[in-house]
Design goal:
This protein is of the alpha/beta class. The chain contains eight helices and ten strands. It is globular.
Length: 254
């Protein structure tokens, strides 16, 4: 058995930093790199892309609502067409900086409120999937498992891979428990690793409001902005490796 370990990185800008990207990039196999919407700037993008290349980490674009004050965790009222154009602009920015860093953007994973909205709203999911396809038909989408994002990409033939979250709680609908509600976050690294090992054995994810649900997964996300992110990523990697699971990227760019 093998699975990818990904994290949201490059989420600082200017003199402000977020998380320990260097440490996370020594642990994960894929990096979702912010591209100027909810966070980042050209220098942060370049630095993070360069570190990813040095560590042999697969790179994905991580577009989000243009909301630095809210870290992209608030829904900004936009039409699906406006969301598509916003995503294309951010993906293109990261692709340009990636060319300067000598690496390649292999996939797209929407951030925060944008990702959750696409998971819930078929029209937003379709708009994002078609936007990604317009940019590059080979550009994969990393989608929350079992949601409209996954279905929309599959419907138009765009490459799609599914992810689960190490540090987030789930609802029986397959959606993530909204931040701020009980059970939304898992802070204990050992508990997170235990849950993942149980999932890998059964294919079922525990939820806060019912019986475990069946999900597919090519990748596991550990959020890079949490204070215990590095410790959690290390614990998960160590525990999964000890259980015979190979940590490897879900997609290796050409």
């Amino acid at each position: 058995m093998h699975i990818d370990l990904n994290s949201d990185l490059g989420e600082g800008f200017g003199p402000w930093s977020m998380g320990d990207d260097a440490a996370m990039l020594s642990l994960v196999t894929s990096a979702n790199i912010a591209c100027g919407g909810h966070a980042s700037d050209p220098e942060t993008m370049f630095k993070t892309l360069t570190l990813a290349k040095e560590n042999g980490v697969t790179v994905g674009a991580h577009p989000g609502f243009n909301d630095r004050e809210g870290f992209g965790r608030r829904v900004i009222a936009m039409s699906p067409a406006e969301i598509a154009r916003m995503c294309v602009a951010q993906i293109g920015a990261l692709q340009g900086i990636a060319a300067l860093a000598g690496t390649h953007v292999a996939y797209v994973k929407p951030h925060g409120a944008l990702g959750n909205l696409a998971a819930q709203d078929p029209s937003v999911a379709e708009a994002i999937a078609k936007a990604v396809q317009t940019v590059d038909t080979s550009l994969a989408i990393l989608a929350i498992s079992g949601t409209h994002s996954e279905q929309a990409a599959r419907a138009i033939g765009q490459p799609v891979y599914s992810e689960i979250f190490a540090d987030r709680g789930y609802l029986s609908s397959g959606q993530l428990v909204p931040r701020g509600q009980d059970g939304a976050m898992i802070h204990d690294a050992a508990a997170a690793a235990d849950r993942l090992l149980g999932y890998l054995e059964t294919g079922k994810m525990p939820v806060v409001d019912g019986a475990p649900i069946r999900l597919a997964a090519h990748s596991i996300c550990v959020h890079g902005d949490s204070p215990g992110a590095v410790a959690m990523a290390q614990e998960i990697k160590d525990r999964l490796t000890a259980a015979g699971v190979t940590i490897a990227p879900f997609l290796v760019p050409n």
